[in-house]
Fold each of these.
Amino acid sequence: MARIELKGLAHSYRAMPSAPTDYALRQMDMVWEDGGAYALLGPSGCGKTTLLNIISGLIRPSQGRVLFDGRDVTELAPQQRNIAQVFQFPVIYDTMTVFDNLAFPLRNRGVAEAEVTTRVHEVAEMLELTADLKRRASGLGADAKQKISLGRGLVRKDVAAILFDEPLTVIDPHLKWILRRKLKQIHQQFRLSLIYVTHDQIEALTFADQVVVMYDGQVVQLGTPQQLFETPAHTFVGYFIGSPGMNLMPCKLDGDVVVIDGLRLPLAPERAQRARAAGGQLQLGIRPEFLQCLAAPQADAIAAEIQAVEDLGNYKIVTARFAGNTVKAKLPEDAPATVGAAWLLLPRERMQLYADGRSVG
Amino acid sequence: MQKTENNKAWFLVLPVFVCVAFSALIPLMTVVNYSVQDILGPNQRVFVGTEWFLEVLQDEDLHDALIRQIEFSALILLIEIPLGIALALALPTQGWRTSLCLVLLALPLLIPWNVVGTIWQIFGRGDIGLGGYVVNALGVSYNYTAEPLDAWVTVVVMDIWHWTPLVVLLCYAGLRAIPDAYYQAARIDGASAWAVFRYIQLPKLRGVLLIAFLLRFMDSFMIYTEPFVLTGGGPGNSTTFLSQYLTTLAVGQFDVGPAAAFSIIYFLIILLLSFIFYTVIQNMGKGGAS
């Protein structure tokens, strides 16, 4: 296990990158703590697989360094880095038995056969593959194959981190849960460093202690699932995490007051100060879960018009319009919401202010 | 649901039956017909049963031709399959060089077979042929029209030149179909280049290799045009393979009965060997599992 540090890392697939858009990965510094379970979350094409492949050594970064426990491994090949990687599509060696598949990375490194046998049996036990050890790997189902891929990473005792590149994409939904739980158990038992790439927020939030959200080649936030939910550092995080995503409304500052198309909402002075300092395009964000809907006017409540109510059985999604903006609110099943006039409460402590997409608190 | 049961479906496959009957079955039956009769004149024929078959099977010349044929096909397969795999592995994987290599490789496949024979016939000549002249100039005595060994070497080299590209193209397509993740996983698992070949590339190539193997086996076992043009089966009978022997029998000597009997035997040999190869290769690497 190791602590992984990325220093001034950037990568471009072009030979002579000039504009920032030429970079698949823009310059970043990051630390992945030893023994952490990280999820790397982001839409397709945001650079998460590139980042993963740089950590494993499959790609040499254009700039910057990769450190494992302080040791520079930027120039080292994957096999010299002691990293394990599980790919989107299960990679198994068709002609080998499950046992030989699991033994392969050890045998390649010249480990004594007695130890190979011991380790393979330990790992097979852990992954519930013992009964299949003598079978040919090619005849197994996708989930068992993916377990074998994982097993090939786990057999090596000295492995620095296990990287997962959307490993559950081809697995049946009901088996996904089982595999994910297995992974979590293994993580808790052995405190391995895990980095898990996915574009599925549920997968990321249930799997990881820390979620790294990537967008357009940059890391926009690193935080616990709760932090991502409550205080998105970037409008993208607000939009990407949660269903429906965060409501974002363009706004202006007038002294310490936020103005949304004529509607005035007072702000704490230090918040307003930070927003002024940051400058740029201002946006006010609030999660649909934090909006409250009232049937009658009340102090601080904003007059709005409900345009649609979608009843999803255990909650309602309400589409409302006020001050030139359309917002969504996620309300309890018993909330009194009907199409027509209504009043919305925006809890001040739940509001987030963004300048050019980045949170100013 | 009620299912209608009748024989109407047969009408749908009837066109195929008719085509196959006229293109394969009826000509084949003619051969069967000849093989069991002695044709003496336009309306004179005698049923001879298995006589032609027995005669053909005891023919010493034919035994020699069969052995020669088996040696030739074995040699061709032993050289062309590994060479084809090696060349496919060595081909560049991207850029204009790939297209260039593929086009150059495909050229021999586009040349009519008798032209291939003619090209090598001239190429190998000691007086005006580039190949023959150079080899002789290097001090190696080479004359494919007089020396059986030289004739053999020429026929084999010609076939390798002509047909290895087919194996290369098939293997190249097979290699390109292997997802990158396999190579990446192998790098992470610390696999050597040999292990990558042995455990990833070769198993993934099994399907195309089966096709390459069968095509090359069948074609080489039936080879006729190129050696016929190049050596005419000589010197002596040293490069007379089965097809040429058959042609001599049927067209040269007009022994239609034995020729027909032998055609059937020839067909059965190819069918049997192809079936054996197919079964063996399909099951190869499937063993060991309980």
Amino acid sequence: MTCRSVRRGERGYPRLLAEIPDPPGRLWVRGEASLDVLERPAVAIVGARACSGYGRTVARSMATECGTAGAVVVSGMARGIDGEAHRGALAAGGITIAVLGCGIDRDYPAAHAELSRAIVSAGGLVVSEYEPGIEPAPWRFPARNRIIAGLARATVVVEARERSGALITADFALEDGREVLAVPGEITSSLSNGTNALLRLGATPATCAADVLESLGLEQQRVVPSVPNDPAAEQVLVALATGAGTADELSRSTGLGASELAAALALLELAGAVVVDEGMVRSTIAR
Amino acid sequence: MFGRAVTFALVGLEPRRVEVEAHLRSGQQPTFSIVGLADRACQEAKHRVRSGVHSALLPWPDMVITVNLAPAALRKEGTGFDLAIALTLLAASDEVPAKRLAEHACIGELGLDGRIRPVVGTIAAAEGAARAGFSRLLCASDSSQEAALAGIEAVGVRHIAEAVGYLRGEDDIEPASPEQDTLPVDTRLPDLADVRGQERGRRALELAAAGSHNLLLAGPPGTGKTMLGRRLPSILPPLTQDEALEVTRIHSVSGTLRPGSGLLTTPPFRAPHHGASAAAVIGGGTVPRPGEVSLAHRGVLLLDELPEFPRSVLEALRQPLEDGVVSVARVGGRALFPARFRLVATMNLCPCGGRGDPKLECVCTPARIAAYRDKVSRALLDRFDLVVAMPRPRAEELAAGPSEPSGVVRERVVEGAGRLRAAPPRRVTAASELLDRAVDRLPLTGRGRARVARVARTVAALAGSAEVLPEHVAEALSYRSPTGLGER
């Protein structure tokens, strides 16, 4: 694995990162891409590792739209929301940056080794303030979060419990004077406690990608999923407009049989208009 | 003095001809020894045979007796040789006519009172006898029905004295004939009408029945996954005559056939507990025995709580799932057991079971969920044609009226399965294009593509279509693995 490093004050050290109160003295970088990608308008999309299907869908589709609009997506390569944010950006052919909480030569979690390779080969970068060989440790992750916040002009928290690492990232972003957005969640879910608390404190609600892009000064490239020309599929989309549902619930609200519904769902999934996750069907189109 | 009789030993399901030879000579000390790689149960035949012959009030030759089981290199195990040993001795001491005994194959265990008991694998031994050119088989009267299924004249005897009387020509015994009635359907199976809601799960079950697909049901506890799986046998097409014979043979060898039950006509259902060992599930042992996968041959194997099974068991499942046969290699040779079954497996979405249930909150860490799911390897997951997530049904669904009963579903399944066999629907170009597009857009392996194509054919057959249309492929795609579990 080849990696390089850039010291603070050297050419190529990200300007935004240099502005934070406690910038890392040296930034290790993995990937062939030029360090200029760190100067592009970037948004951090972060959230819980143990996220819900809703959070996963939102993180992915928001990252996809940000990527399409030309924004760089920064996240922490953890499981859950972070991973989905990277994947969403990659799906749009966008550039994404992963900030590690361990040595630059490690892939943590190991299950995301494939993801880190995809990030690098798509023209993105994996960065860390730790030299090769440093083991991941719990106290390194909050420090890592300050780099995530520092690299991005805006930070979006998708799902977070009350004492989540994602809230630490949001705190850093506020300290750095960057914009903080939070995705509203269900008030009954503990996974929304953190994000709803942020909203109460005055964070900008992120209800669609345009909200995020606006804070970066970018225009949204409207990507309308090509909805298949199929009456059953249209019925499903109408039913999904009021919220996610299981296949059986959709079957009841649309009057479609299990077989027709299954066919419609697969077509919608292929078109990217819905995602099916653990039996829940969700529309990817923000209303 | 010399006597000879023929019986059959089993290697796996395969009958092997065994000649029982008895040699009697006078000596100072009467002895009785059995040679020819006889195991313990077989050695104990000495006591059963001696007592049995005494009980039948027949004279016991007080001589030096040597019984050889040939071929001497084949390991003999079990008690099925008793009858042949007793009759050989009686032939050697001229109590029964040797010529008439040579026309028969014999199998059966002896009681101390001379009664003949049925032994496991009688039908397989009878098939061996029929193939070896014997027209008659002497066996326990309790297993004569079973033996007759092999197409041999099965002479059922209750007692060693009855066998002697028959061989001497004093009594005549009518050989058993297999019941020739049409295969009856077991109506006591649990019915699908008991399952409220879960339309998607029911649909997948119907596809699994018609196309012999493997089905994985995933969801929180208490949503009826197991209940649904247990109802698969009630909608399966009935066994054909050949299939019924195959199934009966396996169950006879493993000893799970009730005496007098005759041909097994309903597809078997097996649900081993997750504590079962690999040998119990797959088959094996020093003397190879069929495992649960073979006992479920032509029927259903339900593995409840799939990730709780030991990894070794799950990985060993892959071979029978792919080949439909289990091969057990032993020093004494190799035994092949057929294992073509529909696998139905259930699992939770996470170890605590809260995931997928709106009323519960999952308390599992991502690492625990990953570890739980990793117990089921990609390779095994790839072998499920149908993966369905079963979320918790709302209360109003449970209050809904009764659902379609098994009988109605079964009619459709029988029709669809018949169409698949006779004239499998062919894919139209547009359907192939949709499949290619799916391979491009979705994480679908080559094996996954083939599975979707197979399921699409079943969907078409159930719909009564002669062609696989795009809508059939689309429906099949929605059950692909591992979508139901959520990709991560």
